[in-house]
Amino acid sequence: MNQGITISANFTAAQLKTGCQRALALIHSPQYAPILAPYARVSRHNLDTGFSVPLAAALQAGAEHSAKDLAAVTEDMATAATEAAAGFSGMRLSWALQSFASACEGKDELTPVALAEAIRQIIEQMPAALPSSSPRQLHPSDVALTGRSSITAEDVFTMLSYSLLAAVSLPEQGSEDTDFLRDSAAATEDAYLSLEPDLVAFLMISLGLALGAQPAISDSDLMDSANEVLSRLPSVSRPAPITMRAQRLNFCILTIEGAAGVLAEYRQQTRSKDVIWAVGKTDFFGWETWKLVHRVSDPVSEVPDFAKRRNLVVVSPPPVGELSLGTEQDPTRSAGNSNVVTLHKPASRVAHRPTVIALTRCQDTVRDLPPMGVNVLFNPDSTERLKRLLESVTDVPITILTSDPASVALVKEVLSNYVGSSEMPILHAECESEVALLHAARHACAYNRGADPESRYQLAHNALEQAEATMRSFTTKDPFLRDIPDLKLSGEEVDSQSGWLMRDTVRGGFLVDDDYSRLNNLLVQLPATMDPIDFQTLEASLPKLAGVNADIHYYQGNQADTIIIVQTW
C-alpha cells in the first residue's frame, strides 16, 4: 500500500494540541455553533445524548495537554470523550478516538503513512464495532488520504476533510440517534432528512487539525468548501415524532470492568433487546474496562446485577406527543426548545419540561422515577459522573433531588465548584427519605409555562415548596402502627389538594387527570429486611388508619429496621 510515497512532516503532539485549539474555536464560533447545534445536541431529552459534550471534552483535553508524546495526549482525549458520551454519536466519536489512541500507543509521533493507515482502519472497522441504521456507511474507498508522491500529515487531514465534506453533503445519510425534517418548500410533513451526526463531529476535528497545521489555510479552498457545505446543512423545523416504543425506553449509561470476556458475559446476561454500544480498552494484565450505553424499559430487571452497579445513569424517555408546527413564531420550531410540549391549540400556549436529576440508592424508586421524566444517578460514589450530567443539561433550571447524607455531600461538593453555562442557580432538594424524594419528584416534573429561564426557575422553586406543604412523614418500628396518629385527611387538607389539582398536568401532550391526584396517598418505605408476618400486619394496619380508599404504595428501602410512611395530599 502507498508505494513510492515520500515521508515528511510527521504528526506530533504539538500539532494535535494546536489542531484541538482550532477545532474548539470552530465549534464555538458564532458562524458554526448555530449550524452544528441541531446535530451536536439531541435535545428531545433534557440531558444531551448527542456528540456536543464528548466532542468539547475531547478537544479541551487535547488543547490543554502539556505532554510531548502523542500517545499520552490521544489517550486522555479518548478517555474524556468516553466519560462524556451518552448516546450513539458520542459513543462512535469516543470509539474512534480510542482506536486512534491505540494506534499511537508508545509513540511520540506518527508518520503520514502510519497516520493515513490508522484513519483508514478506523473507518473500516467502525461499522462492525458500532453498527448504524444509516442506509449508507462511510467506506474507506470514499476517503482519499493519499494520492501524491510526497505527503505530509497536514495533507492527510486536508484530504480527510474533503472526503468528510462530501459525505456530510450526501442526503441519504441516516442515523437512529436523531432525525430532522428537511426545512424546504418542497418538503412535506412526512419528509425527513437524516444525517449521521458523528460525521459532523469528525469533520470539525479534521478541519481543526488541518487549520492548526497550516494557519493560512483559513482563506483556502478547503474553508470555502466547508462554509458552503455547512451552511447548506438542513435546519430543524421540529423534532422527529416519538414512536410508541421510544416513549417507554430510557438510555442506560454505565461502566463495567473485569477479566477478559466481561463484555460478552454482560451481553449474555442482559434482558435488553436493544443494541449495546460499547467502547473499552484492555490493560497490560488483560483487565477490561467498558463504557456501555443501551436503551432499556426497566433498568432494574434488564441490567445484570443492577443493585451492585455504581454511578449508573438512567436518562428518562423524551417528552411524548405530537408537536404542533404552528406558525413561524411557534417556540416549538426551535431546536433548542425541542423539549417544549404544546398543551392545546393555539400553539402559543406551551409548557416546558423541567430538568430533574435524582440521586438514589433504592432500586424500587429507579423503576418509578424515569417514567415521570426524572433522570437518575444510581449508587453515586464519585463527583465526576454528576459533573458530566450537569454539563449535558439542555435547558435550565436544574432540580437535583437527594435522600441520603452521602448523596447530599456529593452534590454540595460538585455545586461548590460548578461553573455552568447559565447564571441560573441550581435547585437542590434534600429529601428525608426515598419516598419523600418520590413525592418531590412528581411535583418537580410538572410541566410549567415559564416564558424564560428566570420564570421557569421560580415555578420550579414553587413546585418544591408545594411538595413540602402537601406531605408529612412518620417513622416507626412497630408494624401495628400503634405510635402513628390517625392518617385520615381533614377538610382543610382536602381543600388544599383540590386547589393543587386545578393546575394543568401534561401526559403525552394532552391535558389529563394526574394518576397521582387521589386525595390520600401513602408511600411506605420498608426496611431492607422484613419478616413476612410483620409486613402482613403492616398491610392490615394501614387502611384502618388512612381509610379503605387510601392509595398505598410500598417500596423496598435500605434502612435497617424502621418503617417510613409519607402521606401526601
Automatic annotation (TrEMBL):
UniProt xrefs under InterPro entries: DhaL_dom, DhaL_dom_sf
Residue span, DhaL domain: 56-126
Any GO molecular function: glycerone kinase activity
Lineage: superkingdom: Bacteria
GO biological process, one term: glycerol metabolic process
Signal peptide: none
Membrane-spanning intervals of the chain: none
Full protein name: DhaL domain-containing protein
